[in-house]
Structure formats: C-alpha cells, structure tokens
Amino acid sequence: MKFCFRALAATGALVALGLPAAAQTEVKIGYALAPDSHYGVAAQKFEEVVTAETGDQFTFTHFPSSGLGGERDVIEGLQLGTIEATIVSSGTLANFVSETGVFDVPFLFRDLAHARAVLDGPIGQDILAKFDDVGLVGLAWGEQGFRHITNNRNPIKTPADVAGLKIRTMENPVHLAAFNAMGAAPTPMAWPEVISSLQQGVIDGQENPLSVIVSAKLNEVQKYLTLSGHVYSPAMLLVSKPFWEGLDDTQKAAFEKAATEAATAMRGYVDNVEASGVETLKERGMEVNALSPEEKAEFQASIQSAYDGYYKTYGEDFVNSIVNFK
Ligand code: PAF
Fold first, then answer.
1. Atom of ligand 1 at shortest distance to CA of 191?
2. Domain 20-323 belongs in CATH node 3.30.360.10
3. Model pTM?
4. CA 82 to ligand 1 centroid distance, Å
5. How far is the CA of 284 from the centre of ligand 1 (A)?
6. Which residue CA neighbors atom 4 of ligand 1 most closely?
C-alpha cells in the first residue's frame, strides 16, 4: 500500500507540473513466509535498495506467505515472466538446475561460516550462474540456517526414534533419500499444505531451520523440537530472465547491489534467530533436545546408503571438495 501511495504521489506531482508521468515498472515479489521472517526482511531490503538506487523507476508489490503459490509455482511464474522476483529455499531448485542439489546433502557443512564461504566462493557462484540457462537469473545466495526436526510423536535422539515417522520433506530428492535411509516415512509436500497437514495429523512432523520454525510459529502445531542440524538450507534471490532482459545496465547494477544487501540482511536475521530461537520456542512451550556430536554421527551413519546415491549423482570428489573447503 505504502508503495502504491508513493507512486500515486509522484505521478500526481508530474501531472500538476504539466509533465508526462514516467511509467513505473511493477516488480511482483513472492515468498513463502511472513513479512517479519528472514524472507520478508530480505525482500524489504531488496526493495529499499532498488528504490534508493533507481529513484522510483520500480514499484514493488509483495506477496508473502505463499500468496502466489508454492515455491515451484512461483519459479515457473518467473520463467514465464508473469512474476518478476522471488526468494526461495533449495526445496525445488534442483528441479531447475540439478547441480544445486549438492548443497542439500546432509552433514555437508560444518557450520554457517563454512556454508557461506562455499556459496560465496567459486562453487556457489558457478551454480548461481547456471540459472541463466533456464530462464532465471540467480542474483544472490541467502540462507535459512540448519534444518532441525519437529514432530508430535516423540523426542528424537537416535535413528530408531524416527522409524515410521510421517515426516514432511521438501519436494527434494536429496532430502527424501536421507529420510528414507533413516527409516522414516517421508512425505514430500509443498509448503502451503504443511501447517494444515500437521494440524489434521496427516503428518507427524516436518523439518526446517529455526528461522522458519519461529517465524511460522510451528510451535502452535508441533510439540517436540530436535536440534539435529542434519542439513544446511540455502535460499536464493531470483529474478525472471524476461524481466532482466528488459533492464538497462544501470538498473541491473541496482538490482545486483540490492540482492547482495538483501542476502546480508537475511544472514543477519539467521544469526539472530540461531542465537535466540531455541529460548523463544521453549517459552512458547516446545520440548527441545539437541543431538550430541555422537548422536549426530549415528544419524550420519544411518544414511550411508543415501550417500552412495549422492556420490553417484554429484561425484564423490565434488562432494568432498565442498566438505573440505576452507
Ligand atoms: O520447508 C520448506 O519448504 C522451506 O524451507 C520454506 C519454509 C518454504 C521456506 O523456503
């Protein structure tokens, strides 16, 4: 609304001066989470910087909370040129650029600093550039943090505790293979269906980072939180290639700068929620346990058969080059 008023005011001033109003280009930006989530904060920063750099040539319309559909639908909208921008997880990105899936391999990264260094380094930047071949422009890697398991059945300490657990995964074959190998009963599902499926008991649990568990208030539908950190969850700021091709070089530079600042804002949000999120969720009534390094090692060992598949798909040397990246 704020932006519509600003656009109207600017147009009105030009008309009053007898000058033709310059056309503003609309940027529809869709994302799965609320305006006060890490995605909302990043989308807001993206808009702010584009506006500061281009002087109101663009007007942004935000569609938070999956207002334009699931992440896959939104990415397809970008390819068609009906949606201009999005911030998405790696949930469905591998369906568009298969190499992206390597970042979803469980227990790949030691910590956030390791993941950020890989995404910002040559490996991450090469993969980002590949989106250009599929009607998309990958502007920057953001992130959600490390994913943890929530559920309503029981606390989780060993792989035996997830046996038969109906757990929602993203529509991502790498995650699916891991939960199958663990002995769970994974159900891939688009995010907009998750909360109602948890409420109705169609699934027992799900997995997401603290950024999502806190901002989507999953404590309202989940009892147990296990800090498993089983996989890092990158996010990406993408724009539509048809839209991008209509921009001049100065505008492209503004969007690139804005995406970098948006990604920094997203990482800042994640740093904060990683520090405070567990306390927040305990205060909201969740029962929380953290896996010890030994317990984590047991989970990693339980998915060895999935690793055989990952090595086949991405190459063992490539996976290890990420593991050993300094
Ligand atoms: O679990 C997912 O699908 C994603 O992490 C989410 C919540 C849509 C954020 O991108």
1. 3
2. no
3. 0.93
4. 22
5. 21
6. 89
Query: What is the per-residue pLDDT across 227-258, written as a single tens digit (0 to 9) for each?
Result: 999 999 999 999 999 999 999 999 999 999 99
CA 89 – ligand 1 centroid, Å: 6
Residues near ligand 1 (Cβ within 6 A): 32-33, 71, 88-89, 91, 144, 170, 191, 208, 212, 233
Has residue 213 got a pLDDT over 90? yes
- Specify the ligand 1 atom closest to the Cα of 212: 7
State the closest ligand 1 atom to the C-alpha of 31, by its place in the atom list counted from 1.
Answer: 10
- The number of beta carbons lying within 10 Å of the beta carbon of residue 9 is 10
